[in-house]
Hints:
The structure is a homodimer. By secondary structure, the first copy, chain A, is an alpha/beta fold.
Amino acid sequence: MLPEIVIIGAGNVATHLAHAFQNAGCHIAQVYSRSLDHASRLASELKDSQPIDDLSLLTKEADLYLISVADAAVATIAEAMPKVKGIVAHTSGSVPLAALTPASDRTAVLYPLQTFTRDAVVDIANVPFFTEASDAKTLEDIDSFARRLSDKVYHADSDKRKTLHIAGVLSCNFVNYLWDCTAQVLAADGYDFSVVEPLVRATLDKAVAIGPRAAQTGPAMRCDAEVMRQHMERLDPDKARIYCELSNEIMKTHKLDCKL
Amino acid sequence: MLPEIVIIGAGNVATHLAHAFQNAGCHIAQVYSRSLDHASRLASELKDSQPIDDLSLLTKEADLYLISVADAAVATIAEAMPKVKGIVAHTSGSVPLAALTPASDRTAVLYPLQTFTRDAVVDIANVPFFTEASDAKTLEDIDSFARRLSDKVYHADSDKRKTLHIAGVLSCNFVNYLWDCTAQVLAADGYDFSVVEPLVRATLDKAVAIGPRAAQTGPAMRCDAEVMRQHMERLDPDKARIYCELSNEIMKTHKLDCKL
Lengths: 260, 260
């Protein structure tokens, strides 16, 4: 018998996970959204799936109820839905497991560390999933759901999910800001951001292969104060300050005896 | 008749470019290195190529003499080699064109914006090349050499190469430092840097697709001061300061009415 899943939510994460679970041999029995249109759109993409916009219509028979909605709405859904016997799980990095307690005695988190865009193809097998559960048996079950999608299944309680969030801010949000600075600097000379794309990809490949500590290069690693000063002179004051701070941190991290 | 190229240098860049030019239908007539062993190693990988360790043995007949050595050695080579009729070009981002003047009346720069590691495969067709030359005809010729390797050929004088260098520091060196911070934060909770790799790749894809300005997300974009303060509390003082600075710059860049 196929595992029965109810998807609560019809946004990007809900859509990607619904398809991924169906492809992994599960039956998405129902799709709930406040908007019946949204529920119907997703349900119509799936096999034999019922769209609903009323939580009282939730089937009692599903093995997994996956709440994939905005962080702030998770607790509200868990309070509003009828209590069920199956596992109730959310997919959020920042909502505590306890928010689900009203909905089931068996609660879990299934947090994919990935950004999902509606039309962008995601290689789900490559996405790391972080799980947490109310008890050992539920953890075993949610892990086995996660492993249907990906080989990369890790455990993370609320505290460790916070670490992952910080990691995401540092490695993606702040990095994207530096790419924005790069794009501005390049645009002033008529170049597009895409000219550095191959270099950035090679840098990431190297950081993954040998670790970012060993992969560090650049003027700061050579204590090349003359080059760094020239660079700062060409940047606006805000960016020059960031340049100075980051260069000093690199020299400090690598215990180099120099400072700007 | 195949274009005749002499490769001066036998390091990573020289090796990758020698193979790429041979694959693109050129004949690498000679490989020079101070070390005959190094010259021989590279020459033996090529078709009908002579290894030399004495600049006085340079053929006078080559169309292009490509100097691909450490930045500091480019001028020394150009002074030590016999003056030739062909184009003498270097591959450095930071050496001025004028350093080549003693070696030929036709000088050029062929600067690949990529990092080359000996054994890592590089998709040369995807590498942006930046050219500069002593005169219009030489520029045309070096561009046509560059286009044998890649569709991405741009012009850059010394000043614009400096811009590209700054772009590389911001988009790669500083970004790698943030990945190093990420790796440290993750390691404290037992996770490897690779758990964020799919997220970072998706972030880069999005930045390339829609531009990093439009791609910016994260707590700073939501002015979520509570989350940002929680994150800073968990970081060591140096990283917390960087977190604060970068968050403030993101909020300023996007003209959000908030500040940490």
